Amino acid sequence: MKPILFILIILITCGSLVLIVFRFLKKQNSREVLKLNTELRKQRQEFFLPSRLDAYQRSVLLMERIHPNSLIMRTHNPGLNAKLYQAELAKAVRNEFEHNVTQQIFITPLTWGIMKSSKEEVIKLIHMAGSQMDEKATSIQLSEKIMEIVSQLDQFPTDIAVDALKKEFQDLI
Questions:
Q1: Which of 11, 36, 122, 156 sits in a 20 to 30 Å window from 85, CA-based?
Q2: 82: domain range?
Q3: Distance, CA of 46 to CA of 88 (rounded, Å)
Q4: How many domains does the chain divide into?
Q5: At what angle do helices 2-66 and 157-172 cross, to 10 degrees?
């Protein structure tokens, strides 16, 4: 009976020792994994930060370029009638946005949604101003109407998007 008790004590002791070693190694492994994850996150941040910075810069530039003030200054064509100029302005906004659509990879979906809404609001404003023009209206009259509508707003949608982009980027760094 004593040899069985002795063997049982040895087995329990060895089992306990194995369990203690296993838990220690598991804890050590968890620490190492956490340390590796932290290091990988830091390296990923360092690698992607320049690309993200570029994306935020390009996105702010996009919002500035589709703001009616700069859009009209850049695309003004006094030889067009209001309807043709309306179509040209809307096309310019869409082209600018399509040219920068890949920036959404680096921007949160919420902020990208704000940017998309801003683009749509600019196009709506252009069409709203165009719908108030008569058949003989000129591009200058359309431009004036657009500026009049913009001046009545407290904050223009592209300005809201720029503020969101700036805040998001500040939170990033």
A1: 156
A2: 68-173
A3: 41
A4: 1
A5: 150
